[in-house]
Design brief:
Order of helices and strands: HHHH
Largest sheet: none
Number of strands: 0
Helix content: over 70%
Length: about 70
C-alpha cells in the first residue's frame, strides 16, 4: 500500500471506532472481538460464555445499530 492508501485506511478505522463507541457495551465488546481482534464466533462464545447462536445475534444487532448511525 502507498502512503495515501495507508492514511485512508487509518482514517476509516478511526471513524469505525467512533461509531462502535456509540453502541451499547454488550454489542461493542462482541463487535470489537470479532472485527478488531479477529476472533471467531466460537472463540467469542468461549470467552464470553454466550452460546454461538447468541454471539451471532449480538454481532448482527450490533452491526445494525452501527448502520443506523450512518444513515
Amino acid at each position: 500500500l502507498d502512503d495515501k492508501s495507508r492514511m485512508e485506511k487509518k482514517i476509516e478505522f478511526k471513524e469505525a471506532l467512533k461509531l462502535i463507541s456509540k453502541i451499547e457495551p454488550n454489542y461493542r465488546e462482541i463487535i470489537l472481538m470479532r472485527f478488531v481482534d479477529d476472533l471467531s464466533i466460537e472463540e467469542i462464545s468461549e470467552i464470553t460464555g454466550e452460546s454461538k447462536n447468541n454471539v451471532s445475534v449480538l454481532i448482527h444487532r450490533g452491526i445494525k445499530k452501527i448502520r443506523e448511525f450512518t444513515t
